[in-house]
Design brief:
It comes from Crassostrea virginica (Eastern oyster). This protein has 676 residues and is α+β, with helices and mostly antiparallel strands. It has 21 helices and 16 strands. 62% of the residues lie in helices and 12% in strands. Strand 10 and strand 11 form a beta hairpin.
Amino acid sequence: MAEVSSKMTWLKRGGRVRPGDGKKEPSLASSMESLTQSQLNLAIMDMLNLGQNWNRCEEVCRGNPITDAGKRQQMVKMLAVVLIPVIVLTGMTANTFIVSLESYIVSSKISRILYFSIELGILLGNIQRERDMSALYVSNIELETKDLLLQRYPDTDIAIQNLSSWPTSANIVRDEFQTREKFLSYLNRHRYQLDSYNRTIKEELQFYSDSIEVFIQWLYEAIVETQSGSVWKSLVAYQEIIVASEFFGRERGLGVSFYAVGRFNTRDEYLLFVESQDIANITFQSSRLYSELAYDMYEAQLMRNANIIEPMQKMRNEIRSNRSSSSRGSVERAKWWFNNMTVYMNALRATQRQLATKIDQLLSESSNDDLRNVITICIVFGVILIICPLIVFAVYSLTSEIQTYSISIANRTKALNKEKKRTDTLLYQMLPKSVAERLKQNEVVDAEQFSESTIFFSDIVGFTQISSQSSPLQVVDMLNSLYLCFDQRIEMYDVYKVETIGDAYMVVSGVPRQNGRRHAAEIATMALDLLEHINRLEIPHLPGTKFRLRTGCHSGPVVAGVVGSKMPRYCLFGETVSIASKMESLGKANRIHISESTFELLDGLGGFVIEERKDNIKVKANDRDLLHAFKGTVRTYWLLRREGFQSEISDSSRSSTPESEGTLERNAGKTLLQRH
């Protein structure tokens, strides 16, 4: 009682147990047991399954690095993480390389076309001069005009021979343009037949103009076939200047014929002059829309010969009016027109050459940039090819080390889990699971007041005498067999085993998990079950001798809390504990002794057969604790059986109690008191 009072005083002071209170003892080193392949596999999966909130990406990335298939899958995933960016980088590098190389090739191709167009422009200029002289000769057949024409033939032939290439295409339908030799033969045949055939000025202009149109068409096709990139506007302006130069050439040729004869012989010649002049002006103006630089170059060239601008404009107006200042033709005026118009056209050709130089400069810069890009990308690509195997090897080695390390972690994790389960099992034996979980979460566990509970006490009748006649090992073996039976049976009920001290066994219901008013029925049913099984249980070292139990039960309020820090125990305190203990000590062998409070609860529930106890009134009456607990009138009862419960107390166990004067029997929810 002194011990109980001291514990009650501790609870009244607000005692509480905190995790980590007291000096920590060094933990025992747990032995690492070797794991089988299946156990190791499960350990790895448990370790990988610690977090269950996965998304689909995490599920794909996870794997078991223990099995061979799992290792291969994990290795493939790790290498894929590295190789995918490397492949993407390689693809981007290759794409940039191809684009730069194509740009370099296109720039080179445009440069070749530009050089060819310059050569073609020189050829067109010579053919235009030959056309003008031929028109002059046809309009005024004289030795002087013949000499002027013959001087133009070698220049045209040299320009044809100087072409770096002769285009060959399925689009060329005229046979005389298939090769360089065929065109020269075609041109020479026309020259030789000039004196034999009486050709008009229009026919002569048409012959040369048709040839010039073929060459211009070649230039168009060459520029269209290539991807001109950023210089396409300059190329179009360059092309327009060449076309404008051709129509200015036609204007010059028709003007030569006009001054050589003194008029246009036909209206068609006049209209052709007007058309050529208008088309030349419009075409040149369109080139300005594509390249303002070309127009500025032309103006700069023309200002160097500003003295011919006004006379040329007067002669153009004179020709356009079809009225010459002299009634007869004049070769000198025709030559003067030709020379001044040639100066005008030379300015146009100079503009053409300057624009070609500018385009070539732009293309050269672009080609150099593309070449630098190609070289840089080749270097980067080479570095990637060198580094990529090193990265793959490093990832492979690192993954292998991680897999080895994961196996080691799995072994340790498995051993740790085993030790944790052992620790939890031991902790749950010492404390209720709900209390133990709160302690594990570092929560403060305060003492709790429970208004309703039922406590069960039991001990072995004659334990002292049996122990004195038995060896210590036999005593331990005896208690072990008894408590093993107890532990197996109480698992079927809503009760909690508080503790065992020697042969004493203490069980409570309604603590720590409250169950309403069922605690009395749970303890009563459990007591009947235990008594039935113990009646059939023999003492191991005393064959034929069965255990005889003395049990007692009492219901009432209790205080429960964790006591101790090194060896914490879940203990119950209060008057209810003392009364339950007295119910056991005042009981008889193989009988269940219950208090009046327990009787009232069972009576209210119904279904239990109970008998009031009438003996030992003086003993109970002299016990002050009982008198105080029962308010002066001590009445206790014997629990006999429960209706519908298979395990019943045999009649032989009750025959040893002749003091029974009455039986309280509960049938269909009512208690029937039988007096004997």
